[in-house]
Specification:
single chain, Rossmann fold, six-stranded mixed β-sheet
Length: 437
């Protein structure tokens, strides 16, 4: 497709100005106007023929990672090759998905004959999912610069946007190095109180006498203690709410994205502890299920399962979710329900938790909105006072619902979304150390 260049538009405007100027003196300027018109039309026609008949001599190839994290800038490289002998001036537009953010286009450059060039631009994904890059649009200038020809280069490509696992993997690195306390994880120190033998080591101050291995002590001629670890080969099952409430925003991330980060972190820690990890979603048009498994690839499987899942418009049916989970998971497990609790939920949530507790240990984690924090609210006007009073009333009813759930035997967490990952890991380690599972 041919488009007039800015130069051609300027020349036409100049010709129009010459025509207007010729009105008072038609005899004097009529002949120059005709000559200018003839020359311009000839140049326009010749330039159009040259660019239209010119062979396609440009090639483009896009290089990008197949998977990028949400909310983080990533680099895309375009490699251009000009196989013709004539120099070319080209303006590029890469048709990246609308779900990605980029401010680098258009890009204009000049390629000499038989020359290649590479350029980079930055993209930032605003949401998770699978998206499609279109082809690269190149607007090539004609030899005289009067026309631009649009050509399409390269191929379409798909890209996956995953949860930002960088921070989660940072947590995991500390966890695997036995430095959970640096994360804010409350790891209680115990002396030989686990259920499974781990290793023999030198006696340390604070070890109990029943922890001393007397045979090894006699053999080594120094005090040797037995060290135990928490019981392994248990199951952790996530029951993830995908309903409309989880779409609420908390900073740059939604409640649902915070829940995914918490799920991935705790899943990694549980796998390192030797436990099996699984997942079931509810209140979703596209429910997902991962049976509990201990393989090293489980974290990757969870990310592959969840990366394109978004909170929908359904309301959570807790009892239906509990029935589905008890049907799928027969062996006792630590079931972690991640949701956004409302005060009216207690009537439906109580029987669901009761059903789950018949076989499983249940932890319910509810995400609390920042707007419910009264310390962050100012009261200077009547409207603000009414809002404050409504928040107080809502918090009281919500706290009553949480007390009902706790009284039923469920272990409840009520935290802001950003605090959920560490809160869940703390609770998991606490339950492991108390042998509640």
């Amino acid at each position: 497709m041919l488009q007039p260049s800015r130069l051609l538009l300027y020349l036409l405007l100049a010709l129009l100005a010459l025509s207007i100027a010729a009105i008072p003196w038609p005899d004097a300027l009529n002949e120059p106007w005709r000559i200018a018109l003839l020359l311009l039309m000839s140049a326009v026609a010749l330039d159009a023929i040259l660019i239209w008949r010119a062979p396609q001599t440009m090639q483009a190839e896009r290089h990008l990672a197949g998977v990028i994290p949400v909310g983080v800038e990533s680099t895309v490289t375009l490699t251009l090759r000009q196989t013709g002998t004539l120099p070319v001036r080209v303006t590029l537009f890469d048709h990246y998905p609308v779900e990605l953010h980029c401010e680098d286009f258009p890009i204009t450059l000049r390629l000499a004959g038989r020359q290649g060039s590479s350029l980079q631009y930055r993209i930032r994904a605003n949401q998770r999912g699978s998206f499609q890059f279109g082809r690269v649009e190149a607007q090539v200038g004609s030899p005289l610069g009067l026309w631009r020809r649009t050509i399409w280069l390269g191929a379409e490509q798909s890209i996956r946007v995953y949860p930002n696992f960088a921070k989660v993997s940072g947590y995991a690195l500390l966890a695997t190095a036995n430095r959970l306390s640096l994360l804010g994880v409350l790891q209680r120190r115990r002396r030989g109180e686990g259920l499974e033998f781990h290793q023999l080591r030198e006696y340390r101050e604070g070890d109990s006498q029943r922890q001393i291995d007397w045979k090894a002590t006699a053999r080594m001629r120094k005090l040797i203690s037995r060290e135990y670890q928490d019981e392994r080969d248990q199951q952790v099952m996530f029951l993830l709410d995908c309903g409309r409430r989880m779409a609420a925003q908390d900073g740059e991330l939604s409640h649902f994205d915070h829940a995914l980060n918490a799920l991935l972190l705790l899943g990694h820690v549980a796998l390192r502890q030797g436990d099996a990890v699984g997942l079931m979603t509810f209140a979703s048009d596209t429910p997902r299920f991962v049976a509990p498994r201990k393989a090293k690839s489980t974290t990757s499987l969870l990310m592959d399962t969840l990366f394109d899942l978004q909170p929908g418009k359904l309301s959570p049916d807790y009892l239906r979710a509990a029935l589905d989970l008890t049907t799928q998971v027969k062996r006792r497990a630590l079931v972690i329900v991640v949701t956004s609790l409302r005060d009216e939920d207690s009537d439906s949530l109580l029987p669901a938790l009761k059903l789950l507790r018949e076989r499983h240990l249940v932890v319910m984690a509810s995400l609390r909105e920042e707007a419910l924090d009264l310390s962050r609210q100012t009261v200077d006007t009547l409207e603000q006072a009414l809002q404050f009073a409504a928040t107080v009333d809502y918090n009281q009813r919500r706290a009553h619902a949480l007390r009902q759930l706790t009284a039923s035997g469920a272990r409840c967490l009520d935290v802001e979304p950003a605090q959920l990952p560490l809160s869940l890991v703390n609770r998991y380690l606490e339950l492991k150390q108390s042998h509640a599972l």
